[in-house]
Write a structure and sequence with these properties.
It is a single chain. The chain is an alpha/beta fold. It contains 15 helices and 34 strands. It has a nine-stranded mixed β-sheet. The chain has an eight-stranded parallel β-sheet with strand order 11-8-5-2-1-14-13-12. A five-stranded antiparallel β-sheet has the order 15-28-29-34-31. Helix 11 links the parallel strand 18 and strand 19. Helix 1 packs across helix 2 and helix 4 runs parallel beside helix 6. It is globular and about 75 Å long.
Amino acid sequence: MTNWFDNSFRKVHIIYVSPEWVKDRGEKFDALKLSRNLKDAGVDCIELYCKDHYGCCYYNSSLGSKYPRDILGELLEQTKKLKIKMIAYFSIGWDMYATGNHPHWTSIDKNGKIRRTYPFEWTCLNSGYGDYALKQLQQLVHNYDIDGLWLDCIPIGYEVPESIYMVQSLDVPCYCPACTKSFREKLGRNIPRAPSIEDKVEFFKFRNEVHRVFLERCQRLLRDKNPDAILTYNAAGSLGDPIDISDIISIEGSAPNYARQSFISRWGKSRSKPFEVLTSNALDFWCDLTVKPPDLMKLESAIVLSHGGTMTFGHIPYTTGESGSAQFSTIKEVFKWIEEIEGHIANQEGVSDAAVLIGVKPLMSPQFRREITDGAESISDIMIGRHIQFDIVSGTFDMSKYSLIAIGDQKTLSDEDAQRLRNYVKSGGNLLVTSQTGLIDENGRKRSDFILSDVLGIKFRGASGNSFSYLRLEDEKVSQGIWADYIMVKTEPLDIDLDGADVLGWSVSPETELSEATTVLWGQPHPDETRVRPLITLNKYEKGRAVYIGLSPQSKGIVNQSMRTIVGNIIESLIPQKILVTDASSGVEVVLNKRGGEYVLHLNNYYSGDPNWFGKMTFKDISVKIDLERIGKVKRVYDPLSGENLKHNIQNGYLEVMIDRLNINSMSVIEIGS
């Protein structure tokens, strides 16, 4: 198939929702006007709601709740003329029309109740609803020349969704008649009424096979009609996606979670697929009509673009079918800026000193996904703040190109992953490992010791039993910037024994547990120096080094700033010579990419998107120094927007690029050659 999506950077997600009870339903929809407004705003691709959560179809369908007019057909006729791509959005998991008429098509909990989120009832693809939805999709794909399908609310993640919409939740088990019958036929037993974790994982695999077959049938529908059409779905290719058969990665990530947007983008960049991050163009999530300021939308775009992806913005027509003018004017301002720089965005490759390893196995051991994701995100947040150039990686990858591999609480590690890491450190690589990494295999079975205990020079004893502890540091490099003798860490540490490693920091147990403010000072007991265990260790393993931190690093909030500083100090100490150093603030993300014969330097100012101070934080005279030994001889440094040469110096083996002014984003292109 032709990978057209990889070069499409100006997309909108049109949430056309006009249920049957609204006033003046669709009476002001004007396909010609809308398509011209979209073209004028610079849009090159739209994702249009063709069936919403109420089950209303906005195309000619013989099934479902029928809209008074053919929105898809009318708009598609115009967008084809303007060379705007059309992806059809279709709600799968929620269809109030279908479940209202067929209650036995819903997902049922152990108490016999229909599962709901918001007012919506969850469908079950194992029931007759699966065939019903496929018939609707078959009519859509067969009768309309669309460029792809975007399927929503396919529940694929295990039980608890990510806190900020990285994946839809799949509560398990489902006790609907269809699941009850097919589970018994396939596995020879009934679904347990009091399922264990193992039972839930087994049912999760059983039900995801149903989803995989459904998605494969959708993919065949598309390919038979249009070999270049793409299939994607909400959370496609995310860390929690156990199926991962989409043509592109599609993950939601909204302001003001800018570090999360970067995390998603770095993950997408490593997956060898085009990716999009979706965000509302409104201030209060998807269906609010209060449009975001253009500068905020530029910041969100800049973060994703700096990693080679697309920020796809929501667009909310009124229920009458008409769109507000502010939505077009803001999109136009943002997309005009993107169009001017997108020639330097496609096919970027990260230039990195470090890698954050993701060990998640979303189908094999889904119950650990949440902790695994949180651990990796914490390390990612810290590296962004320290301006470390890093990738997010998983599976088989070239470890040798990284000075450091950081593994933040990745409970599940396979034997193969562990052996590759062992060889990496043997050959001179540096490793950072935290908390319970490797205590569970990829199938969810517990190990008696860390799988990398030999590399780390420690042995696992067990959980400490304390809900918190105090940290006392021994090493000057680790303690740099810390102004406390004892650091309260509000997470349970692990107990370990030394097996060759040196101690960089100790865990000191409290005199007692946290309590009400009685005789203990405000309920926070003091450290007990008679109960001390190793917490941070350093082990030299053949040519390399490995640092272990016996707790899950937390990076958010003021109470975790000391741990953020400590982990940052350790990361920097394990990278002998960084490719990039800068005096930029920690709230400025700095990204260096390679693209053909040039390097592209991005600076994204997270402060400009602070919800309390939109656009009020501007920086001047930022210095970024890049190691010339790593990038080669510099021919020219210029601004891709103006084409003007930028101030720079070459001295002591470094190229120094000077950023005179940073409001939202700065982009510099460095041409390399003889």
